[in-house]
């Protein structure tokens, strides 16, 4: 009987709120941007370039995680309050005081592109025009700070391209890869588009919340991630989504 009581006590101790909380604190909250081909949520099946890359990193580091795909704006909010520990995305001015940047990925060119026959040679030519702009994202200071350019906020590139196809906007802004990825899903080939105007070049970074340093070693992540980049793991993953 004493042995049974002792066993019952151990079971209660293991599942006490304190121990459950301690376990939850060791599970990293990882978020990937909901932009194909970087983060793809296909009816609950998660994948994508950044999604796979982060999972490879976590596996090599031996870290347990809960990895979800969220919109830009939600990830930014969660990084600020410490609810998200780790992500891969561009630097944002509003996050300077909330995150630490671990390691850069290759830079991406952001473009403004319209339908065939509608070409832009400067940001100035976008004035009085409407462009589909992903909600929560920031792709170009020149475009963002020009009040004469009409920005139509969209939830994803697919919605933006549908608006472009129907003539509800004059162009769409963003990195070329996700624009082309969304176009393929809609059956739009490269002949649909005009000539792209490059409006910025920005670098995605592996970054962690400043509130997460007690859960994770930034130095360990940097060492592992650098080796992954040197060994071409990003390129291997990118080939899966071409």
Textual characterization of the structure:
This protein has about 240 residues and is of the alpha/beta class. The protein folds into two domains: about 120 residues, 3-Layer(aba) Sandwich (D-Maltodextrin-Binding Protein, domain 2), CATH 3.40.190.10; about 100 residues, 3-Layer(aba) Sandwich (D-Maltodextrin-Binding Protein, domain 2), CATH 3.40.190.10. Helices cover about 35% and strands about 25% of the residues. It contains nine helices and twelve strands. The protein has a five-stranded mixed β-sheet. About 35% of the residues are buried. About 10% of the residues have low confidence.
- What structural category do the secondary elements indicate? alpha/beta
Average predicted local confidence, pLDDT: 90
Strand tally? 12
CATH topology of the largest domain: D-Maltodextrin-Binding Protein, domain 2
CATH superfamily of the largest domain: Periplasmic binding protein-like II
Give the overall shape: globular
Total of helices: 9
Helix content: 25-40%
What ranges have pLDDT less than 50 throughout 5 or more consecutive residues? 6-24
The CATH class of the largest domain is identified as: Alpha Beta
Integer-rounded radius of gyration: 22 Å
Largest sheet: 5 strands, mixed
Helix and strand element order: HHEEEHEHEEEEHEHEHEEHH
Architecture of the largest domain, CATH level 2? Answer: 3-Layer(aba) Sandwich
Q: Span between N and C termini? A: 64 Å
User: What is the count of structural domains?
Assistant: 2
Provide the spatial order of strands within the biggest beta sheet: 4-1-5-12-6
Beta-strand content: 25-35%
């Amino acid at each position: 009987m004493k042995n049974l009581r002792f066993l019952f006590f151990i079971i209660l101790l293991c599942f006490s709120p304190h121990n459950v909380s301690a376990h939850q604190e060791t599970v990293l909250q990882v978020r990937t941007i909901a932009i194909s081909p970087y983060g793809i949520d296909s009816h609950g099946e998660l994948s994508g370039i950044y999604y796979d890359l982060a999972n490879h990193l976590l596996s090599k580091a031996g870290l347990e995680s809960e990895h979800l795909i969220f919109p830009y704006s939600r990830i930014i909010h969660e990084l600020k309050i410490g609810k998200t520990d780790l992500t891969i995305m561009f630097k944002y001015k509003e996050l300077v005081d909330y995150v630490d940047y671990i390691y850069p990925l290759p830079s991406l060119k952001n473009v403004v592109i319209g339908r065939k026959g509608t070409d832009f040679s400067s940001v100035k030519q976008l004035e009085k025009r409407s462009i589909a702009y992903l909600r929560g994202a920031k792709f170009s200071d020149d475009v963002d700070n020009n009040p004469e350019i009409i920005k139509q906020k969209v939830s994803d590139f697919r919605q933006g391209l549908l608006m472009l196809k129907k003539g509800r906007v004059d162009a769409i802004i963003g990195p070329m890869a996700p624009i082309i990825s969304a176009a393929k899903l809609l059956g739009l080939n490269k002949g649909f588009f005009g000539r792209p105007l490059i409006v910025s070049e920005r670098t995605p970074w592996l970054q962690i919340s400043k509130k997460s340093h007690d859960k994770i070693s930034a130095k360990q992540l940097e060492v592992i991630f650098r080796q992954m980049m040197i060994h071409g793991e990003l390129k291997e993953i990118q080939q899966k989504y071409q």
